[in-house]
Amino acid sequence: MPEGLAVLKWDDELGPVVAAKTPKSLTKGLDPTTSMRVYGIATLGETEESQKPGFSALSFDDFKLAVYYGGLSMHLKGLPSMVFLVLRPDEDPDVYKDALPELATQIFLNAEGNKYKKLIPKFFKQIARYTLMTPEQRQASVLSDPVRRAILQTLVRDGTIQSNDLEQIIFEEVGKKIDVEMVLRPLVKMGIIATGWVEGLASEVIYLTRAIFILRKISMETVRAVKSGGLPQDTVAQFVESTRRYHRDYIARLKRDLTDTLWKDAEELAKVLLDFDAYDLIQILREGPQQTEHLPSLLDTTKARLRKQLSALEKANIVMRVNDEGGREHVLLKSDPEVVTVYPEWLIERTVELYNDEAIPSRQAVHYLEILKKSHPTYATVTVTGGE
Amino acid sequence: MIREIHVFKDGQTLFEDVIIPNKDLDTKAVMMLVSSSAKKLQEWKIDSMEIERYRYVYMNSHDTQFIVTMDRQASLSKVTEALMNIVSKFMTAFERTLETDEWKTTDFSPFKVGFRRIVSRIPVKVCLAGHGGTGKTTLLELATMPSQGPPQEYVPTFFGDKALLKADFDPYVFSMFDLGGQDRFVQEWGKIIRAGSMVVIVTDSTRENLMWTKRVAYPVLKNELPYARAIAIANKQDLKGALSPQEVSRILGVPAYGMQANRRGFRDRWLKLLRGLAFEEIDFKIVGDIEVD
Q1: Distance, in angstroms, between B180 CA and closest chain A CA?
Q2: Which domain holds residue B25?
Q3: Model confidence over A309-344: pLDDT tens digits?
Q4: Exposed/middle/buried for residue B23 (C-beta within 10 Å: 0-12, 13-18, 19+)
Q5: Which residue of B148, B158, B165, B178 to mutate against A (max A Cβ within 10 Å)?
Q6: CATH level 3 topology of A140-210+344-387
Q7: Which fold has domain A4-131?
Q8: Which regions of chain A carry the CATH code 1.10.10.10?
Q9: CB B43 within 8 A of CB B60
Q10: What percentage of chain A has pLDDT greater than the value 90?
Q11: Phi, psi at residue B71, to the nearest 5°?
């Protein structure tokens, strides 16, 4: 567990200044000499590359630092530009390699009006759990962020956009100017988008390479358990009827308004997947139904907290509770939220349409079609076969 | 670094406090020019103009013009904020007076205390520049850690170091930056020295080091801090063969002062030099005016 979290900014007269920290008593790593050195390490070098945002791990005599630097532009503007996680000497800073950049991004996005200061204790509490996130939760975290959701909605519709236009869309969505590059970074890392320069265009172009959604699946393990007779007959009937009705309705909603259903669900389901208590419960139920009375010990929680959790998940149509004739309560997955990424095949036609309507320049369209070709699943297979 | 303030109404001076007198320009003429610009400003709007190494930041409120003179090299955003603060404090105390004819007979001089308090909140940035091993860290510690005594062992500074210094500089507090002097760090100075009002060029008083200073350090300093004022320290005067301060001064083209930074007894002299540079009581040179062969 880290010893503390601190946010620093550069002040022209004072050098590095601690803008916020938790716990309040934290002093390690924050003395002028160390913080100056860390700024030095982060910005050392004349090339643009050396001054880009990035993670670094540093060891000192009696502590270690996991550091995320927000880049020279934030640094020179005097905005929060450095996030320190102070660690014990026996801890490995690399454990926070994924979590810290994400957390720092949230801090930088809340720089306006110093909003991040109030969030620091909450972020610090979350950091340890952040490192325990599954890949599925990491993907869900992208969809829980309203700015990134707005970007993905645009890209799922049109496939490609210039970064200037995207900045404008974000501005309209959230009412403030945001560093697009910072927001896009995790999406690039996850292989969901790609960025590149196209000759003749004034700003960088962003392309969707995989679309990301959260879908409600029928839990096959639950169906299998139900079918194999592991549950009393009356319970089975209640579950089958209820889940069938729900999924029929879900598919009808998807057919009626795919976009609205998907994005509303993405927001709600991402929140559920990122709630560690809810996620632990879903993970258990993915293996099969459980009796309510067994769950507190499996989840290491109290009955009261479990009841609250179950009610919330029931309301979100993720679990259902049914009673058998013996008075025992069973909990089953009614719909299993699953993060999926898919190849955006529909964007091939859409790109041609946009090109024909002169909504995007020809070079941008051609470049995107090339990218779609290269990222097509069959193209990858052909390349491997060709290599053999 | 705020140097002075002038408050005018109907062409009359209500209040003025000159911390560092301007010896280069005709202050009266400059104030006439700036106050005529200030009069045209909307209420609470701030603007500024630059003349040589000075920046005049001004504002108009209740038909009263507030003009603050600052070092052109220092950070404008902080002085702008300070001016807002000054005017709002002034108004809290004298708003009613200004709205009647009472201002013509009022003594505004008690405002000096409040003004100087605001001035003291903006640290004055001092950059110690020079090659590795010339004694920059020793000077920093000699000034800021008097009880510890100067370090006797040479440990190269990575990137830079900094410390606050409060001494006989009222109303100013100095923010001292020790710039890493290894060759690979000199090109990084630009990232650290912005808003530096004063530069102390530290040398070890050897010919080789002075040549390095002119060749490597000068271009960076002239590029980044052309309006800052500078002196040179002819350090290590106790070493055999050390060039005299006069010789150092002649070669560098900057007034140089002798020093033995590794001796605690030199602390007073060092603080006096810093004070002298800040209040312009000793000879100095403007960085942009330093001649390079």
Answers
A1: 10
A2: 2-120
A3: 999 999 999 999 998 888 889 999 999 999 999 999
A4: exposed
A5: B158
A6: Arc Repressor Mutant, subunit A (1.10.10)
A7: Beta-Lactamase (3.30.450)
A8: 213-340
A9: yes
A10: 54
A11: -65, 130
In chain B, % helix, strand, coil (3-state, to 5) comes to 40, 25, 35
- Closest to B181 measured CA to CA, from B163, B153, B157: B157
CATH class of the region A213-340? mainly alpha
Averaged pLDDT, A219-240: 84
Q: Which of A40, A46, A76 sits opposite B160 (nearest CB)?
A: A40
Contact A14 B161 (CB under 8 A): no
Last residue of a domain, one of B120, B145, B169: B120
Closest-CA residue of A relative to B190 is A46
Domain total for chain B?
Answer: 2
Compute the nearest-CA separation of B8 from chain A (Å): 30
pTM to 2 decimal places: 0.76
Q: What is the amino acid identity at position A291?
A: Q
- ipTM value of the model? 0.87
Mean pLDDT, consecutive 10-residue stretches, chain B (293 aa), reads: 96 95 94 95 94 96 95 94 96 92 94 96 96 94 82 75 92 95 86 93 97 96 96 96 97 97 94 97 97 78
- Give yes or no for a contact between B38 and B59, defined as CB atoms under 8 angstroms apart: yes
Query: Which tokens is A46 given?
Result: 């004349």
* CA gap A23, B10 in Å, rounded: 54
Tell me the Ramachandran region of residue B20: left when phi exceeds 0, alpha when psi lies from -120 to 50, beta otherwise.
beta
- Which residues are registered as beta bridge partners of A67? A56, A84
Q: How far is CA A295 from the centre of its chain?
A: 28
> Where residue A129 falls among pLDDT bands split at 50, 70, 90?
confident
Q: Which residues 6+ apart lie within 8 Å of A109 measured at CB?
A: A147, A178, A182, A183
Tokens of A321: 């509770």
Please answer whether residues B184 and B218 qualify as being in contact, where contact means their C-beta atoms are separated by less than 8 angstroms. no
The chain B residue lying nearest A39, using CA atoms, is B159
Q: Which residue has the tokens 């069959």?
A: A378
Instruction: Check pLDDT > 60 for residue A202.
Output: yes
Strands A64-69 and A80-87: antiparallel
